[in-house]
């Protein structure tokens, strides 16, 4: 059985040399995760970041599985951007969930990755029924030839909230995008392939790039936002609408992005884009007339331009 997912950007074969290892879900690759990466990198290289896909909760308790902050492909990109020499994506399933902590250590950390040091968050749990802890890693590691360390993910501002993905999800659900960005170290983003919409935005003078909402991922509440779209590594200022377009009786929830100053050759249809949410401008509204909607759209774009300036 192969325990590694064959994901573009991730290794899939067994290592040939010992590694410094950091382990976690790494959803969002927020500032706390970056602290883990930095600490692990300070010990030595090569630095291997091991993450899980799907999220263990999706296997163990699907109804309680959290909304994800990043795709696994984006997670790999961010982990490498912040110091990982290699990323391994563990194909988490019910069989792996049944392994004891010692079996997980022997098969994955020692057998596959030849860990010489392991750095995790201080609340890291693993193995059947989450029985393994940092203390387990230290005790078994002493016998298997690797050191283990658990570090706190406390925020440096003295806040009672540690850096964590759950905090980011709560902030996004409340539409608090600057606060979410403060934990992530970057604006929260969603990604998807641009599809053809109703064409109504173009008729109103505001052509938009439409991305359907994927319910597996954390999307801010319905409303209008200032932000950016990123395509081919280029960032463009945008006014972004999240919702169903209630003025026209829409039912499908989607993210519609109006590029404020597009280049003449910018064609986004069928392209995969990232949408960054910088700040919420207003909640979603239903307008009595199209003219009232268009007037508000002009105000929204002007406000987005001011925020992004």
Tally of separate domains: 2
CATH class of the largest domain: Alpha Beta
- Biggest β-sheet strands, sense, barrel: 6 strands, antiparallel
Tell me roughly what share of residues is in helical segments.
25-40%
Shape: elongated
CATH superfamily of the largest domain: HUPs
SSE blueprint and pairings:
Blueprint: E1 19-23, H1 31-43, E2 47-52, H2 56-60, H3 72-81, E3 86-90, H4 94-97, H5 101-112, E4 115-121, H6 134-144, E5 147-151, H7 165-173, H8 177-184, E6 188-193, H9 200-203, E7 209-212, E8 223-231, E9 234-243, E10 254-259, E11 272-283, H10 290-308
Parallel strand pairs: 1-2, 1-4, 2-3, 4-5
Antiparallel strand pairs: 6-11, 7-10, 8-9, 8-11, 9-10
Helix pairs in contact: 5-6, 7-8
Structural features, described:
It is a single chain. The protein has 309 residues and is of the alpha/beta class. The chain folds into two domains: 19-151, 3-Layer(aba) Sandwich (Rossmann fold), CATH 3.40.50.620; 189-308, Beta Barrel (Elongation Factor Tu (Ef-tu), domain 3). It is 31% helix and 24% strand. It is built from ten helices and eleven strands. The strands form two sheets. Strands 6-11-8-9-10-7 form a six-stranded antiparallel β-sheet. Strand 8 and strand 9 (234-243) form a beta hairpin. Helix 5 crosses helix 6. The longest helix has 19 residues, at 290-308. The radius of gyration is 22 Å and the shape is elongated. The termini are far apart.
